[in-house]
């Protein structure tokens, strides 16, 4: 993953570029290649002159075996990092121990699973063993015994201390540039004292070091590639590139070499810090800061006697509050000595002093010049590793970690009792809008200073409680917010992970929740309305039938795009207590729903029914808490006797955008079909429904009701979800006639089975004139005119389920004249057939009148009630909208609705597919999938593959000798090798796309970060759901 950056702005001298093109098989004379503008004393040494005839072709052959392509997944995003799959580069620096050098942002401070692909396409698994807290380098390690077919020489690190600020070195960049297996770019290093590139506020940034720069135009995938001299030695490490120019930036290897040596000796790598950033300034700038002229003169004279030529010193750029240097060092201080010595190598000498002081547990003594005055400070050094993330918390699907030095430095924060950083919000934190890059400082009216505080507080919060949470966004650190967080322990694990550098993984420890402790004490709600007057008698009473509804789906299923939806709810019954809302507010069956009454009380609700066509959901709730709070409830009495007519003046009562109740008069202007289109990804949409429009547009409303002067509700004003021209989710508002709602409400009251019957087709209207051209006879046209003053003809616009009986019998373009001998003139007529098992239809197809008996499809109003999480995929049964977008036929398999970032699935698959086989095992249902992906079943299949070598004589009949040798059974020695090196972590997945294209991909299994889980609706459970998590 190349780190693209904006150009680094500096007032220093411009970069001097020397163009020296050459062929890869040519010999380079370094002496002649030096630019003429360099002073005479800056020519290469005598030794380099003797060795300047070197062939680049030899360098290529030597180094190419040690450069690897790294493919990795970052399953969790901590600190400044985000989860995802990416490719990068590394090179082997110790072939005996299997150590690979790459960038810190490749090795990651977050969990990572990675493997390397060698130049001969062998694949080896990697484990991260070190990432520097500050500088952009880190190390992977691999098992050297796993490399079977390649001798790896390794690349020598050559952190040469260049003598001059302006020096031209002709180099090659070896990388997996832009995802290619191997790219070789040439370039010239010049100006070796460049400041570290800036990747932006809140991102990972290197500091307290110099960088090299060259115009090499490296791009994505080149991170971690070596910069080689003509002798094949690594002199720098590629780190990042500018987006708007060809400049690339390279990390010198001084600190890398020291860290590698300590790793090779099995020693820890001490890293000390004063929580202070230093900058390099030249003498002209130092004089402006108060450096005495006599000190400058002495430093310049001393510099000429040393091998390192410096034209400046280090200056304090920033100091974090409450850090080791806080109250001592100040920005603008010029660093003169450290522990009684000068710093001729500047950053290198400074960090060596800090690291040594940490190892010996002694302070450092610094002398600085502050506005011309010399000051001395003795400072205690802090362990840099202790303020770099080494643990994280999984909470409600989100990721939390202690604030790191990187984040604190970027925003100037103190690291003392500063709160908890949100790496990913997930479900629970998302209910309070505590998104990524937020800092939590309090929860449940208690202060949060660290991750331990957070765990101890939330562990005691019960299921379903709503608690205050205090946090601020790092983009606006002075604006602390207090929001309400809804706790729901049902959907995700609660556990802590700690990094293990020996194994390369993060070890999990599960944390108990109140859900597991007090499960038996949770009681099912009891609904009662004893002695309560709830009938409406006036328009003012209708205001008490309106509530606010909030919906938080815990998973991305059924094509969802939003993690929070809200709108108005209408109380339509109190025996039992029922609320009606639109499906733009409650879109899916797995949701956490809350109701707010009069902006003064919030309670939970459960989903009871989702209508498959008419855009409404029905919720149930326990009104006990509402009555206890003294809140008055009224029922909106639905009147389905007759609809409003166009031109009628009606009373609107609804919820405004400010969640206040509005009452106003408006006029019905039209009753027209709601036109929705297919979405990407497939998402539920209203079909075959008409709605009222009014003269006041959308009424600035979240939803409400239309009533006559007697308070009878004849229509519900609701939001219909659509997708606009930019493919963004949007909505339109319309009034749904009450007669489309009352059949289901009456069934619930009568405790009847909630089943809706219908056809798997989408209807639309056609003008009579066009229908005549398509074959509708004059006789039928007269019948249509007799039934309606403004008749239209219904035709089938599309098939919504090609697998159903109605979807197979009917075809797009069919004109439907009558159903069960009843003539159709508008889409609302279809509601009359929602109880029929079979419909006798008269249609016009290709100009010919036909009679069909078409079975209807039953819909139970529950939709998706079961989801499996496997390897980062959210897998479910095929839902209606996905069926609608399948071409030709609906695959027999399970549907992938989402692939989470950083998962094995994201690296190999994409959502919107049907998995039909796993390792040649059919998976037509979710139960079959669960059985196929059990670890013991996978291991069993892998063992069978290893031992299933059988010779098919028919295959060998038409083969030549070489081919016969290739296809022969493995020898005993080959079987032993296979047993040792066999990879049991890959499985084969066969899937089908919506275009009915079948493909096969290999998936690398990761049960550690992506264990299998299964959630299913369970009416017998006190929680309403049965949750199963694999260990």
From TrEMBL:
Annotated coiled-coil segments of the chain: none
Highest taxon of the lineage: Eukaryota
Pfam families, sorted: PDZ_1 (PF12812), Trypsin_2 (PF13365)
Listed InterPro entries: PDZ, PDZ-like_dom, PDZ_sf, Peptidase_S1_PA, Peptidase_S1_PA_chymotrypsin
Cross-referenced SUPFAM superfamilies: PDZ domain-like, Trypsin-like serine proteases
PROSITE patterns xref list: PDZ
Domain (PDZ) ranges: 314-340
PANTHER family linked: PDZ DOMAIN-CONTAINING PROTEIN C1685.05 (PTHR46366:SF1), PRO-APOPTOTIC SERINE PROTEASE NMA111 (PTHR46366)
Protein's name according to its UniProt entry: PDZ domain-containing protein
Source organism per UniProt: Thamnidium elegans
């Amino acid at each position: 993953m190349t780190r693209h950056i904006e150009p680094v702005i500096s007032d220093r001298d411009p970069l001097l570029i020397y163009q020296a093109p050459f062929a890869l098989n040519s010999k380079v004379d370094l002496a002649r290649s030096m630019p003429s503008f360099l002073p005479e004393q800056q020519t290469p040494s005598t030794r380099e002159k003797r060795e300047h005839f070197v062939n680049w072709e030899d360098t290529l052959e030597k180094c190419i075996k040690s450069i690897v392509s790294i493919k990795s997944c970052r399953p969790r995003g901590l600190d400044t990092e985000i989860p995802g799959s990416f490719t990068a580069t590394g090179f082997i620096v110790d072939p005996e121990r299997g150590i690979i050098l790459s960038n810190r942002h490749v090795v990651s401070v977050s969990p990572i699973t990675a493997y390397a692909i060698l130049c001969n396409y062998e694949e080896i698994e990697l484990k991260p063993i070190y990432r520097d807290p500050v500088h952009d380098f880190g190390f992977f390690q691999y098992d050297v015994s796993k490399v079977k077919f390649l001798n790896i020489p390794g690349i020598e690190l050559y952190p040469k201390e260049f003598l001059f600020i302006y020096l031209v070195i002709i180099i090659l960049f070896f990388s997996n540039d832009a995802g290619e297996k191997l790219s070789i770019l040439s370039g010239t290093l010049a100006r070796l004292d460049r400041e570290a590139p800036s990747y932006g506020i809140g991102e990972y940034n290197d500091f307290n070091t110099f960088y090299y720069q060259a115009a090499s135009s490296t791009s994505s995938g080149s991170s971690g590639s070596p910069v080689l001299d003509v002798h094949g030695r690594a002199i720098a490490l590629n780190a990042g590139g500018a987006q708007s120019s060809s400049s690339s930036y390279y990390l010198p290897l001084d600190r890398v070499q020291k860290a590698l040596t300590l790793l090779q000796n099995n020693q820890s790598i001490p890293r000390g810090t004063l929580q202070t950033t230093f900058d390099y300034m030249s003498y002209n700038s130092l004089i402006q800061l108060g450096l005495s002229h006599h000190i400058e003169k002495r430093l310049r004279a001393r510099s000429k006697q040393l091998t390192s030529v410096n034209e400046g010193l280090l200056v304090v750029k920033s100091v974090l509050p409450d850090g080791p240097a806080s109250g001592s060092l100040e920005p603008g201080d010029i660093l003169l000595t450290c522990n009684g010595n000068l710093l001729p190598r500047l950053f290198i000498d400074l960090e060596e002093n800090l690291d040594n002081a940490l190892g010996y547990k002694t302070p450092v003594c610094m002398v600085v010049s502050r506005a011309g005055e010399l000051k001395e400070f003795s400072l205690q050094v802090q362990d840099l590793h202790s303020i770099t993330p080494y643990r994280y918390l999984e909470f409600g699907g989100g990721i939390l970690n202690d604030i790191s030095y990187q984040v604190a430095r970027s925003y100037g924060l103190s690291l003392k009792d500063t709160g908890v950083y949100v790496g990913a919000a997930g479900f629970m934190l998302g209910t309070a809008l505590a998104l990524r890059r937020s800092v939590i400082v309090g929860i449940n009216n208690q202060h949060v200073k660290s991750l331990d505080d957070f765990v101890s507080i939330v562990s005691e919060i019960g299921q379903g409680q709503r608690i205050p949470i205090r946090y601020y966004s790092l983009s606006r650190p002075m604006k602390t917010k207090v929001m309400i967080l809804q706790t729901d322990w049902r959907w995700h694990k609660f556990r802590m992970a700690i990094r293990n550098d020996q194994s390369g993984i993060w070890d999990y420890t599960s944390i108990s929740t109140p859900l597991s402790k007090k499960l038996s004490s949770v009681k099912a709600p009891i609904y009662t309305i004893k002695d309560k007057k709830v009938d409406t008698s006036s328009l003012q009473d209708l205001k008490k039938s309106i509530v606010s509804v909030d919906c938080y789906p815990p998973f991305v299923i059924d094509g969802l795009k939003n993690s929070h939806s809200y709108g108005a709810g209408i109380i339509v019954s109190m025996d039992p207590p029922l609320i009606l809302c639109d499906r733009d507010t409650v879109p899916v069956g797995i949701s956490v729903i809350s109701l707010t009454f009069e902006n003064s009380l919030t309670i939970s609700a459960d989903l009871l029914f989702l209508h498959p066509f008419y855009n409404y959901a029905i919720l149930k709730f326990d009104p006990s808490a509402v009555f206890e709070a003294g809140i008055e409830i009224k029922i909106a009495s639905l009147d389905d006797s007759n609809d409003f007519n166009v031109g009628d003046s009606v009373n609107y009562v609804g919820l405004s955008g400010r969640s206040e109740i509005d009452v106003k008069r408006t006029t019905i202007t039209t009753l027209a079909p709601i036109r929705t289109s297919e979405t990407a990804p497939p998402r539920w949409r209203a079909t075959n429904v008409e709605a009222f429009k009014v003269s006041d547009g959308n009424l600035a409303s979240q939803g409400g009701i239309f009533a006559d002067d007697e308070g009878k509700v004849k229509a519900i004003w609701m939001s219909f979800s659509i997708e606009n021209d930019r493919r963004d989710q949007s909505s339109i508002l319309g009034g749904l006639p009450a007669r489309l709602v009352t059949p289901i409400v009456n069934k619930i009251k009568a405790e009847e089975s909630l089943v809706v019957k219908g056809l798997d087709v989408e209807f639309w209207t056609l003008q009579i004139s066009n229908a005549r051209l398509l074959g509708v006879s004059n006789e039928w046209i007269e019948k249509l005119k007799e039934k309606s003053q403004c008749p239209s003809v219904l035709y089938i616009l599309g098939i919504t389920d090609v697998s159903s009986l109605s979807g197979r019998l009917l075809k797009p373009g069919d004109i439907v004249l009558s159903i069960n001998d009843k003539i159709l003139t508008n889409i609302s007529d279809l509601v009359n057939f929602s109880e029929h098992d079979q419909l006798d239809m008269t249609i016009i197809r290709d100009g010919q009148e036909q009679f069909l008996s078409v079975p209807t499809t039953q819909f139970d109003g529950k939709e998706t009630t079961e989801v499996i999480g496997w390897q980062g995929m959210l897998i479910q049964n095929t839902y209606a909208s996905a069926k609608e977008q399948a071409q030709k036929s609906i695959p027999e398999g399970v549907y992938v609705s989402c692939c989470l970032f950083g998962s094995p699935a994201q690296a190999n698959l994409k959502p919107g597919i049907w998995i039909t086989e796993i390792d040649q095992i059919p998976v037509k249902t979710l139960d079959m999938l669960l059985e196929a992906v059990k670890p013991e079943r996978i291991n069993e299949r892998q063992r069978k593959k290893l031992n299933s070598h059988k010779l098919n004589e028919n295959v060998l009949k038409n083969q030549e000798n070489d081919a016969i040798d290739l296809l022969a059974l493995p020898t005993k020695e080959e079987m032993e090798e296979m047993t040792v090196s066999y990879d049991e972590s890959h499985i084969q997945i066969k899937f089908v796309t919506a275009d009915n294209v079948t493909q096969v991909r290999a998936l690398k299994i990761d049960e550690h970060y992506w264990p299998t889980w299964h959630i299913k609706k369970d009416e017998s459970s006190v929680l309403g759901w049965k949750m199963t998590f694999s260990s």
